[in-house]
Design a protein that fits this description.
Layout lengths: L1 H12 L5 H18 L11 E7 L7 H12 L2 E5 L6 H10 L5 E5 L6 H12 L8 E5 L5 H7 L3 E2 L3 H13 L2
Parallel strand pairs: 1-2, 1-3, 3-4, 4-5
Helix pairs in contact: 1-2, 3-7
The structure holds CO-5-methoxybenzimidazolylcobamide.
Length: 172
Amino acid sequence: MISAMDVVGQRFEEGKLYVPQMLAAAKTMAAGVEVIKPLLKGDAASAGKMIMGTVSGDLHDIGKNLVIMMIESAGFEVIDLGVDVPVEKFLAAIEENPDVNLVGCSALLTTTLESLKNTVEAINKCANRGSFKIMVGGGPITEEFARKIGADAYTEDAYEAAQAAKEISEER
Ligand code: B1M
């Protein structure tokens, strides 16, 4: 399904597909993901708690939802803040959940990289910053950019995200 989405993205870039078709592809993929979801059984033991959202200005949520699905199946409880999440909402969720182990931010547009940077910078100033790790991911993000903005981990896909979640939450 991800490869098919890449084809949709490529055709959109070439002007052969438009936003409505891109949206239809997204809805189709979301329906497919719902079929897979019950097959991924979560670990009964709680590995920890994660807060996750797509940053302000960005409406893409399929990648975020896949990451959530994999991280839940690795035994984490995930609080999904949704899409277009303002910095204040991330900060409020962190304050309301002092036992949080991981905060994840997703960004899919080059235009929302700035928003990701602002979000991570603000989260880095939280009083309890030492008690959780920040993970970022999404198309335009690189390892170098993630490090530069002060995130603890960058992963390219949902599988790697779940592996990293387990590893870095154990580092605490
Ligand atoms: Co949008 N869109 N889109 N779009 N869209 C892209 C991202 C784009 C690359 C298409 C293209 O031009 N080739 C392009 C961005 C270009 C850029 O900035 N460089 C683009 C654009 C331009 C736009 C609009 C501006 C179009 C317009 O309106 N003119 C607009 C922006 C709206 C907004 O957000 N403000 C827009 C809108 C939309 C739809 C709403 C129609 C729809 C999204 C619907 C939805 O998500 N519910 C949509 C779609 C479907 C796409 C493409 C085709 C597919 C995205 C997707 O779901 N991929 C996309 C092209 C592409 O990606 N090939 C495109 C599948 C998904 C599983 O992959 O999201 O990358 P991905 O997630 C991966 C990894 O990135 C990673 O793991 C995931 C799973 O392996 N990951 C993380 C993601 N988050 C992570 C977090 C982590 C770790 C890993 O830790 C916390």
